[in-house]
Amino acid sequence: MSKSTKYVFAHFMVGNTYPYSVQDWLGDIVLASQNNLDGFVLNVGREPWQKDRSADCFHALSQTTLSFKLFFSFDMSSIPGQSAEDVHVLCEYMKSFGNNPGMFRYQGGVAVSTFTGEHLRFGQHTLDKAWGYVKRALEEIVPRVHFIPSFFIDPATYPTIMCLDGTFNWNGSWPIHLTSKSPRREIECPELKSDQHHLRHLGGRTFMAAVSPWFFTHYGPDTWNKNWIYRGDDWLFVRRWEQLISMREQIDIVQVISWNDYGESHYIGPIKGAQPNSQAWVDGFPHTAWLTLNAYYSRAFKEGRYPPIERDQIFLWARPHPKDAMASDDGVGRPTHWQVTDDTLWVVVFSMAPAKVKLYAGDDHKKSFHVKAGVTKLCRSLKGNRGVKVTMEREDAVIAYCAPHEFLFRTRPKVYNFNAFTDASC
User: Fold this and answer.
1) In this predicted structure, what is the pLDDT of residue 338?
2) Where do the H-state alpha helices sit in 13-72?
3) Quick one: pLDDT at residue 184?
4) Per-10-residue mean pLDDT for the chain, 426 residues long?
5) pLDDT at res. 2
6) In angstroms, rounded to a whole number, what is the distance separating the alpha carbons of residues 308 and 77?
7) Where would I find the beta strands (DSSP E) of 202-276?
8) What is the DSSP letter of 182?
9) How far apart, in whole angstroms, are the C-alpha atoms of residue 105 and residue 99?
């Protein structure tokens, strides 16, 4: 694969596919390809059955004529890596799939990524020696590995780490620096600048950037003990894509986080498979409107120009209750940094020509906007115990309409849910 060609992949949690069939995989592959994704990055952990589901995925891909590709992100928060023998888990994946025609190859090597792993040594003394050892072991199975991990380390150390062929800036997706103590002016204008710090130290090696629409996780101390949000407001998904497109010459690959990580609420694919006990904040909260929105920006990134708007369309998303509401039946508690979000309906409209757009919170709270042809970002405050509706009008006729009857901004929730409900006009 050429370095000058741009690619967009989606991070895919194989750990959520225990009940998947080959047909389930096929459905996801076709849907992703139809929405301008070039492939899946398969996040795999230590459980042996994940290798079986990966085999089903490669088998499903072989039944198509799509140019869709796959590569692995070894989840080193799950896979052991203390002793030299621990490399066998990674080697077994390469033995099974490394030479498969569906595997993504980049700059002459089989692409390999990770989630974390900077803390593991595989019996070696340094990070560089540890992952150099892993690369050599994998290259006994495939001719060459192109190693682009997500290591949570200071990018200033990259020049000393020879095993890296590139890096993936996982946390570039969100304004993770924002906390409940951040000044309000910083919350209202959050910046996403961490890519430049990585690029300064990479020395021309591959850079994989991240984009993500949201982040909310809600596990108590008795499970994964993860209960926080990152601010997804201010049309984060669109703003981040605009940023990546503006600097596309410096970016080789974009990875969307994620296709199906329900536990962290940033899925853009359909809700299916086996959830990681996230049903309380995922069921009834579809995100496929973001998949359609992503298709537009993915194409813009790969082609180097924004495509023409070919259809009048509305996209909207909102949280289901006020941020300071008290949940009546939640044993986990409010997520950390709940204060950094706003009670706002976020709207993006694609308009083929100038139009009038009306945003409703309930039937009697309307805000009107005149929009030009192209893409416009709009918002308005939500109202307690009201639904939402957005209309687009031209020459006194409604040309696009979005009014999800399933959504209600409830002031008295039973559980805390800072996930987003998304919808799009037909």
Assistant:
1) 97
2) 22-34, 49-62
3) 86
4) 82 98 98 98 98 98 98 98 98 98 98 98 98 98 98 97 98 94 85 91 97 98 96 97 97 98 98 98 98 98 97 98 97 96 98 98 90 98 97 96 97 98 96
5) 47
6) 42
7) 206-211, 216-218, 227-229, 253-256
8) S
9) 10
CA angle 293, 24, 318 (to 5 degrees): 30
CATH class of the 313-424 domain in this structure: mainly beta
Retrieve residue 258's tokens: 């994620």
In eight-state DSSP terms, residue 396 is T
Q: Where are the domains of the chain?
A: 7-303, 313-424
Q: Is the peptide bond before 278 cis (omega within 30 degrees of 0)?
A: no
> How far, CA to CA in Å, does 352 sit from each of 212, 314, 373, 410?
26, 12, 5, 34
- Predicted model pTM: 0.97
Give the pLDDT confidence score for residue 240 in this predicted structure: 97
pLDDT of residue 3: 56
Query: Do 18 and 49 contact (CB within 8 A), yes or no?
Result: yes
CB atoms within 10 A of CB 89: 18
Within 10 angstroms of residue 112's Cβ, the number of other Cβ atoms is 26
Q: Give domain 7-303's CATH superfamily.
A: Glycosidases (3.20.20.80)
- Say how many Å lie between the first and final Cα of the chain, rounded: 36
Specify the 3-state DSSP secondary structure of 8.
Answer: strand
H/E stretch holding 146: strand 145-147
Tell me the C-alpha distance between 350 and 314, whole Å: 6
pLDDT at 278: 98
d(CA 307, CA 408) in angstroms, rounded, equals: 34
Distance CA 323, CA 340 (A): 9
Beta bridge partners of 410: none
Choose among 77, 41, 75: nearest CA to 57.
Answer: 41
Q: What is the pLDDT of residue 312?
A: 98
Token pair of 383 as six digits:
């109202």
Other Cβ atoms within 10 Å of 99 Cβ, number = 12
Residue with tokens 């204060």: 339
Q: Does an H or E element contain 108, and which?
A: none
Peptide bond into 113 cis (omega under 30): no
- Which amino acid, 53? R
Q: Facing residues of 6 across strands?
A: none
Backbone angles phi, psi at 268, to 5 degrees: -115, -10
